[in-house]
C-alpha cells in the first residue's frame, strides 16, 4: 500500500497536467469564434446598395452575435475570388458562382437558398419540343436539330448539355446540329416555325402547366400572348437546381454555421425588411441546402464534361 501511495503521489501532478492540457486544447478548438464576420454583397452599379443592404447586415450581426463588415462587390466573379482567397466569409452567390468557387478551392459550403414564392425553391433546365410531332421522347429526337443558347448560358447550354450527358445522351452526337438562338423564347419560336425540332430553356415546374408554370421560358412565352403555346411540351428536365446559394467558408466554426442557417431560416418571418434587402427578387423565404443540391451545376465544371461543353466539339 505504501508503494501504491508513493506511485499515486508521483503520478498525480502528471495526470493533472495531462487533463488540464486536454481541456485547454478542447477550449481552443477550431470552434473558437472569429472576431467578426466579413459579408460580401454583389451590387453592380447600384449606388445606393450600402443603405439598401444595411438591414440585412444588422440582422446578420444579431444572428451571429458578431460584428459584420460589409464588402461591396462589382461582379459575381469578384465575390467568387474573394471567397476563394479568404477575403470574405459569406456571400450570396448564384448556383453557377457557387460551383465556380468550389472548383477553385473546395473551401465553401451553402447554408440556404431563397424561394420565389410558396413553391419549392428549385428550378429546372428543360428541353422543349412540339407536341404530337412524333418526337415526344429524347429517343425520338435523335438526328434532329436542337436550339441552344450561347456557350456561357447556364440553363440554355451548360447545365442541360452536361446533365443530358449524365443521363447518357451526348447532345453533340445525338442531335444532327446545335443551332444557337439569341434567347430561350426565340428557341420556342424556332421550334414552332420548323427551324429546329427542340430547344432548351428553364422552368419552375410549379403551379399550372396550362399557364407555363409559375416562371420560366414557357411562362414567358405564355405571358407574351404569342400563338402556339399549346403546341409545346417538355420532353426532358434536369435535376432540380436551387435559385441561389448563401455560402460561407468551410473554415468557419460549425457552431457559427448552424447559428447562421437557423437565423436565416427565420428571417422572412422575424425580419422581413432584412430578408428583402438581400433577396428582393425571391421573396418566398429561405430553405436549407447542402452541397449535393448543386450537383446539376457542379457537373458543368467537371473534366468529364469539358469536351462536350467546348463549342469546338470533339
TrEMBL record:
Residues 1-27 form the signal peptide. The keyword Signal applies. Keywords: Signal. Pfam families: Phosphonate-bd. GO terms for cellular component: ATP-binding cassette (ABC) transporter complex. The keyword Signal applies. InterPro entries: PhnD. GO terms for biological process: transmembrane transport. Belongs to the phosphate/phosphite/phosphonate binding protein family. This is Phosphate/phosphite/phosphonate ABC transporters, periplasmic binding protein. It comes from Roseibium aggregatum.
Amino acid at each position: 500500500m505504501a508503494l501504491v501511495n508513493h506511485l499515486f503521489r508521483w503520478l498525480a501532478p502528471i495526470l493533472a497536467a495531462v487533463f488540464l492540457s486536454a481541456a485547454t486544447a478542447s477550449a481552443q478548438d477550431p470552434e473558437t469564434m472569429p472576431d467578426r464576420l466579413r459579408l460580401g454583397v454583389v451590387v453592380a452599379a447600384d449606388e445606393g446598395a450600402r443603405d439598401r443592404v444595411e438591414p440585412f447586415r444588422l440582422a446578420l450581426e444579431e444572428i451571429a452575435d458578431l460584428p459584420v463588415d460589409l464588402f461591396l462587390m462589382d461582379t459575381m466573379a469578384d465575390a467568387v475570388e474573394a471567397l476563394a482567397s479568404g477575403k470574405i466569409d459569406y456571400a450570396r452567390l448564384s448556383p453557377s458562382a457557387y460551383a465556380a468557387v468550389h472548383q477553385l478551392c473546395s473551401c465553401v459550403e451553402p447554408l440556404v437558398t431563397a424561394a420565389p414564392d410558396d413553391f419549392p425553391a428549385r428550378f429546372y433546365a428543360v428541353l422543349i419540343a412540339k407536341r404530337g410531332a412524333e418526337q415526344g421522347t429524347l429517343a425520338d429526337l435523335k438526328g434532329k436539330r436542337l436550339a441552344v443558347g450561347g456557350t456561357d448560358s447556364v440553363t440554355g447550354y451548360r447545365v442541360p448539355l452536361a446533365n443530358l450527358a449524365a443521363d447518357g445522351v451526348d447532345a453533340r452526337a445525338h442531335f444532327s446540329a446545335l443551332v444557337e438562338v439569341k434567347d430561350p423564347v426565340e428557341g420556342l419560336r424556332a421550334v414552332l416555325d420548323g427551324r429546329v425540332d427542340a430547344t432548351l430553356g428553364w422552368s419552375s415546374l410549379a403551379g399550372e402547366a396550362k399557364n407555363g408554370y409559375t416562371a420560366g421560358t414557357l411562362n414567358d412565352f405564355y405571358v407574351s400572348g404569342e400563338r402556339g403555346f399549346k403546341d409545346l411540351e417538355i420532353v426532358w428536365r434536369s435535376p432540380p437546381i436551387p435559385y441561389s446559394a448563401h455560402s460561407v467558408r468551410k473554415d468557419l466554426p460549425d457552431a457559427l454555421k448552424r447559428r447562421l442557417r437557423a437565423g436565416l431560416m427565420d428571417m422572412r418571418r422575424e425580419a422581413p425588411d432584412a430578408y428583402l434587402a438581400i433577396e428582393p427578387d425571391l421573396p418566398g423565404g429561405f430553405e436549407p441546402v447542402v452541397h449535393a443540391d448543386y450537383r446539376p451545376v457542379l457537373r458543368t465544371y467537371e473534366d468529364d464534361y469539358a469536351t462536350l461543353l467546348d463549342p469546338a466539339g470533339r
